[in-house]
Predict the structure.
Amino acid sequence: MISNTEMIRIRRQMQRRIRDVVAERRRARMMEAHHTDLTGESAEPDTSLTTTV
């Protein structure tokens, strides 16, 4: 059985990972927007690599 302190530690670790992913995605969007401002290219992702069902 998982102790209360271990559950708190796991929850904090998960929240930290989520914050890291959100921050990384935000940085990627900001870099893409900045790249678009400099080059004038579209910031839309390449949809040729995605599949449709």
User: Anything to note?
Assistant: The mean pLDDT is 84. The chain is about 70% helix and 0% strand. The radius of gyration is 19 Å.
